[in-house]
Design goal:
Belongs to the EXORDIUM family. With about 350 residues, this protein is α/β, with parallel strands linked by helices. The protein has one domain. Strands 5-4-7-10-9 form a 5-stranded mixed beta sheet, with helices on both faces. The protein has a two-stranded antiparallel sheet with strand order 1-2. A hairpin with a 4-residue loop joins strand 14 and strand 15. The termini are far apart.
């Protein structure tokens, strides 16, 4: 028997839900189909020669086919706090890369093009009162789960159980913040997750009160270094089935984590604009929403589209990036600007 306690748009308890509603929401979550932008997914049977020699004309999305709309749900207008769960085996250097990326979202003195400049496109989105998404994104509390409390193979529902363990822990539990908190579950390179590598590199949703006790926006992102770097760490790794395609050098010397950074950016941008899956998205089906980062998957610079990342930057050591953080460089995909109906990023050349 399923018993749910729902939350209003502002995160406060609402009257008890019916069994029917609870089952409907559960079905929605389990059956949700990820939106797939361009990645070298194995099941797509990509023609390698098309990737290598196809046209690199300006792409960056098409206003003719995209109809991103606001569906009146809440967005994150209050200062955003990212609470991180490190699941599995993580070393200090890996954590530093991800922490600095998150801290760079609100940094004001980073060299251009900057991560903060990338976030300004996300800030353009508003709620029904006209309030913009918060400029401030900061690191919150962190929780280490180095002993794999729920095993090394996770389903979408067991991910919510990991979050429950983190917010209900007897020692140093993560704070409960339904209004402006985001919960970021990061799994190490030896953890299998449902649909990982075959369909998704990360996803976001919200926790069920019946499992966690609260409705909390969360995202999961996995380290693909050992499992599928050619898919989820692309373009810092390439799959063997695309002959002639060469990987780019990662800016922080960790292919798996540098690949994760872009996925983390993707999910945080979508959590801010569509935390309860009823705010900003394209398409008629909320079970498979096309969100602001889905529209720009694989686009990192001017001219990007298909397997072509767009025009990027190289540092003195030959590493490729498209934006600066506080002290590091990152390669992060662009997001959709609904005012101009185009994918945009801080390194755009026009």
């Amino acid at each position: 028997m399923c018993h749910c306690r729902g939350f209003s748009a502002r995160g406060y308890p609402s009257p008890p839900s019916t069994l029917l509603l609870c089952l409907a929401v559960l079905t929605l979550f389990v059956s949700v189909s990820p939106v797939i932008g361009w990645r070298p997914w194995p099941h797509n049977k990509i023609n390698g020669s098309d990737l290598l020699f196809g046209p690199s004309e300006k792409f960056e999305g098409s206003s003719e086919f995209v109809h991103l709309r606001y569906h009146m749900g809440p967005v994150l207008t209050a200062n955003i706090t990212v609470h991180t769960i490190w699941y599995g085996n993580w070393n200090k250097s890996q954590k530093k890369i991800i922490r600095e990326f998150i801290n760079s979202i609100s940094a004001v003195n980073s060299k251009r093009p900057s991560v903060a400049g990338w976030w300004r496109t996300v800030q353009l989105y508003t709620d029904q009162t006209g309030a913009n998404i918060s400029r401030t994104v900061r690191l919150g509390e962190e929780k280490n789960d180095r002993f794999y409390s729920h095993g090394k193979s996770l389903t979408r529902l067991s991910i919510q159980s990991v979050i429950k363990s983190a917010v209900t822990a007897k020692t140093k539990p993560l704070p409960i913040n339904p209004k402006s908190g985001l919960y970021l579950l990061l799994t190490s390179d030896d953890v299998l997750v449902q649909d990982f590598c075959g369909q998704v590199c990360g996803f976001h949703y919200f926790t069920f009160p019946s499992i966690v006790g609260y409705t909390l926006p969360y995202a999961w992102v996995g380290n693909s270094a050992k499992l599928c770097p050619g898919v989820c760490a692309y373009p810092f790794a390439v799959p063997e089935y695309i002959p002639g395609l060469k990987p780019l050098k990662s800016p922080n010397g960790d292919v798996g984590v540098d690949g994760m950074v872009s996925v983390i950016g993707h999910e945080i941008a979508e959590l801010a604009t569509n935390p309860l899956v009823n705010a900003w998205y394209a398409g008629q089906d909320p079970t498979a929403p096309v969100e602001i980062a889905d529209l720009c998957e694989g686009i990192y610079g001017t001219g990007g589209g298909g397997s072509y990342t767009g025009q990027l930057l190289d540092d003195r050591g030959g590493a490729t990036y498209n934006m600066n953080g506080i002290r590091r460089k990152f390669l992060v995909q662009w997001v959709w600007n609904h005012l101009v109906n185009y994918c945009r990023g801080p390194n755009a050349l026009d």
